[in-house]
Each structure stands twice: as structure tokens, then as C-alpha cells.
Here is the input.
Amino acid sequence: MAVITEDIKKEVRDIVLDFFAEECEVEKSEINDTTHIFNDLEGDSLMFLELIEIFKKKYNLNIDLKTIGKYSLKHPVRTIGELINMQILIVEHENNIINLD
Here is the structure.
């Protein structure tokens, strides 16, 4: 379990924004916490998987996709802000994310 610092929060945010700016071919400055991933950016579920892999490698995380899927069913992610928050929880709690309710 990682300790989440302000630096890590900023880093997670930057990774998410950079990823969606590049993948969706929009300016990073056009993306904010309320940007809807599917409606505004035309993102898809494969992007979520790719982003999770980026975080798994960057932070050496041990988390199963099945666990993330179960968590996402209870806590759907639609906006960039929701996704950033979920990624921070994944970095902090890994597979224990499912027990956070």
C-alpha cells in the first residue's frame, strides 16, 4: 500500500491528462475534471485498460483487472476527475480497492 503525496496526485493527474490528450487528439488544456470521457473525448474501455497498464508499470502495482472491474461496477467512472480519483485509489490500495466501501 502506497502513501499518496501531493506529488503523486499531481503525477497521476498529469499522466491521465497527457494520455487522453494524446489518444483523443485534443489539447491538454481542453480537458478538466468534468470532461466526460465518452461523450466529450469519445474515449472507450480499451483506453481504460491501456491506462491501467501504464500505472501498473509506473508504480509496480499488483492489481487484477477483475478487481478493478468489480470496483468500477459499484463506482462507475464517466469523467476525467472520477478517473483520476480511481487511479489514485488503485495506486494507494491496489487489490484492496474492492474493500473500500
The chain has one domain: 6-99. The domain at 6-99 is CATH 1.10.1200.10 (Non-ribosomal Peptide Synthetase Peptidyl Carrier Protein; Chain A).
